Amino acid sequence: MASRTKHQRPSPTSPPAVPHVRVAVVGSGFGGLGAGVRLRRAGITDFVILERAGAVGGTWRDNSYPGCACDVPSHLYSFSFAPNPDWPRSFSGQPDIRAYLEKVTDTFGLRPHLRFGAEVTELRWEEEHARWRVSTAAGTWTADAVVSAAGPLADPQIPDLPGLADFPGKVFHSSRWDHDYDLTGRRVAVVGTGASAAQIIPAIQPRVGRLTVFQRTPAWVLPRRDREITGLEKWLHGALPPTGALRRGALFALREIQVDAFVRRPGLLKVIQRIAEKHIARGVADPALRARLTPDYRIGCKRILLSNTYYPALAAPNSEVVASGLREVRGSTLVAADGSEHEVDAIVFGTGFHVTDMPIAQRVFGIGGRSLAEEWKDGMEALRGSTVHGFPNLFFVIGPNTGLGNSSMILMIESQLNYLIDALTALDSVGATALQPTARAQRHWNLELQHRMERTVWTTGGCRSWYLDSAGRNTVLWPGSTSSFRRATRRVDLAEYELIKRPAPVAEEVVPA
Question: 110 vs 113, 182, 331, CA distance in Å?
Answer without folding.
Answer: 5, 37, 48
